[in-house]
Automatic annotation (TrEMBL):
ATP binds at residues 60, 64, 119, 145, 153, 197, 239. Belongs to the SUA5 family. It is an enzyme of class 2 (transferase). Gene3D superfamilies: DHBP synthase, Threonylcarbamoyl-AMP synthase, C-terminal domain. It comes from Lachnobacterium bovis DSM 14045. Required for the formation of a threonylcarbamoyl group on adenosine at position 37 (t(6)A37) in tRNAs that read codons beginning with adenine. It is found in: Cytoplasm. This is Threonylcarbamoyl-AMP synthase.
Amino acid sequence: MNTKILKVDLNNIDMDSLKEAGQLISEGELVAFPTETVYGLGGDALDAKAAEKIYKAKGRPSDNPLIVHISKFEELEMISKDLPIEARKLADRFWPGPLTMIVNKNDKVPYETTGGMDTVAVRMPNHPIALELIRQSGCLIAAPSANTSGRPSPTEAKHVVGDLDGKIAMVLDGGEVGIGIESTIVDLTEDEILVLRPGYITPQMLSEVIGKEVKIDPGIIAQDDTTKPKAPGMKYKHYAPKASLVLVEGEQDNVVSKINELVQEQHKQDKRVAVIATDETRNKYKADVILNIGSRNDEDSIARHLYKILRECDELEIDSIFSESFQTPRIGNAIMNRLLKAAGHQVIQA
Ligand code: TXA
Ligand code: MG
């Protein structure tokens, strides 16, 4: 299949391109598109065959459900049942935005889209291209992240093309995304409201709106197999760079000395080493490659560059990577959740 790549200017959206993309979705084809979190791989959410195509293009296990993207609240009502009051409250506050809600599905949603589950994940993305694509297609759009299963989520169209060229009908290139990590997932189907995947919107922000405590799913904090995560996707082995990745935690100065020590040890064994550093520390390391992830004064910049840096690690000829830790004040949990998985939980205290 020839994948058509169309550049779209966010500030001046070309409607002909969006109509063409929407038409493809309505015909059961797949189109990758930007959202504010990461690029999504979209297909008609209510068409079982389109959902199957998505799993195939990504190489994704078909028991890992997709997120349904909508452009207005009524579309959530249209595909759910027993919608709790919290859904309306959270939508009023956070939609369009990086929050996915799990609710009970009704018969309109095929089991192919929900990986066999009776619940469905729904999100209204805060991105003009994504919203216009949903409207133009006349469909609700099922969209997982637009990467090959097991690779980091794409934050630029070129990442999507690298993974899916020739496998999907179209890529809408709307430039780099703004947030860079996937949406927060909150489960509203149980008495206890749980965050199944941490993201830009924190449990505290959710608690404030619904007036009761929101916890993080114990299954995603556990490092052993005793407690399974509730979101099927969180149990899969995630992306790990080809080179070994080790995180170093502690006070900044101690981390810098520790990493430099570790680099030296590797150099004695003739290894090539990369360090993931920040604006504040990048000049303090002596390694073969320094990857600057962003600034500690701007934690959003760290989230935004995370996946791009992890992809770069594979393009470099290196043997080991040492990274600082990013337990930043607000979205540190979300950043570290991804980074710890990439490192296979290898952490050294400085
Ligand atoms: O930011 C995002 O959420 C991006 C953009 C494209 O919107 N999408 C995304 O989709 O990250 P994906 O498929 O890569 O991740 C969806 C996650 C998976 O971990 C999946 O298991 C979980 O959501 N999920 C989907 N439906 C669910 C359900 N009914 N119950 C529990 N978890 C569900
Ligand atoms: Mg994904």
